[in-house]
Specification:
Radius of gyration: 11 Å
Number of helices: 3
Helix content: 55-70%
Distance between the termini: 15 Å
Structural class: mainly alpha
Strand content: under 5%
Order of helices and strands: HHH
Shape: globular
Number of domains: 1
Length: 63
């Protein structure tokens, strides 16, 4: 069973985008660009809030 974790190896800030990329088996750069685009498109605060909440809620990978 697949679980969503923050990445330890593919991280720039907290590993949220790297974890999402590992879960969906896509390149982490694509996920980071998507998050950056959505953050700017929604007025920055909602995207930053989402990232912060995800970093707090998502457990870190044990691998």
């Amino acid at each position: 069973m697949k679980r969503l974790y923050r990445s330890r190896t593919k991280k720039m800030v907290a590993g949220v985008c790297g974890g999402i990329a590992e879960y969906f088996d896509v390149d982490e750069t694509i996920v980071r660009l998507g998050v950056a685009f959505l953050t700017v498109a929604t007025g920055i605060f909602p995207g930053v809030l989402f990232y912060f909440v995800a970093a707090v809620i998502m457990p870190e990978s044990s691998i």
